[in-house]
Amino acid sequence: MADPNCSISGPLYTMYRDVTESDTDRTWLQDHTLRYDITVIPAGTCGIEYAKTKGHYHPAGPAGVSYPEMYQVLEGRAHYLLQRKDLTDIVVVDAAAGDMVLIPPEYGHVTINPVHETLVMANLVSTRFQSEYGIYEELKGGAYYEMEGGEFVKNPYYPAIPPLRRITPPSLEPLQIPTTGRLYDLIGNYQALEVLNAPDKFTLALRDLLKG
Ligand SMILES: O=P(O)(O)OC[C@H]1O[C@](O)(CO)[C@@H](O)[C@@H]1O
């Protein structure tokens, strides 16, 4: 957090791992090395900074491309603060209930709850890796902190970084991922979800995803 001594009553957020509606879905996810999770970030601030997740990067898979992740806002609003590993691009994606957001390879991510309403979001992600927290721990969070009222303040522990780009959720059409329904309903549709395990097969579409 921007203020390491800030305090908050109760947990900043809660993660429900490996959630399914049926054993059939659980088996399908396991067979395809995928996981569906739900995260709840209650409204609130720590000091004057909005509640958020800790932040992490994903490692590269065998083909050298790092694993993406797919989110959907179920309730509330989310700011997905995405930063390239080389810090040449830092983007905040403003997402509302129903929106799906894909975290592309090379980008670390923090999710911020920027409103006075509980944020509930779901994610689908490969189980073939462990999250990497190193940079976020060393540099005390993401490259920007979002303060009450919506101001983004540069994290002073970071070197010179580009200004923050603000975008709406990019279309997932180039990846042929249907985004009109529930993220959960993509379980069983490996054509849509293969990108989570094998991003190297989709490099072109992924490269341009955040171009805006
Ligand atoms: O691991 P962090 O940085 O706390 O982020 C939590 C987020 O990461 C995930 O565990 C998976 O990337 C999500 O379920 C959750 O929203």
UniProtKB/TrEMBL annotation:
Belongs to the archaeal-type GPI family. It is an enzyme of class 5 (isomerase). GO terms for biological process: gluconeogenesis; glycolytic process. Keywords: Gluconeogenesis, Glycolysis, Isomerase. Pathway: Carbohydrate degradation; glycolysis; D-glyceraldehyde 3-phosphate and glycerone phosphate from D-glucose: step 2/4. Pfam families: GPI. Residues 15-155 form the Glucose-6-phosphate isomerase prokaryote domain. InterPro entries: G6P_isomerase_prok (IPR010551), RmlC-like_jellyroll (IPR014710), RmlC_Cupin_sf (IPR011051). It catalyses: alpha-D-glucose 6-phosphate = beta-D-fructose 6-phosphate. One of its GO terms (cellular component) is cytoplasm. This is glucose-6-phosphate isomerase. Its EC number is 5.3.1.9. GO terms for molecular function: glucose-6-phosphate isomerase activity. It comes from Methanosphaerula palustris (strain ATCC BAA-1556 / DSM 19958 / E1-9c).
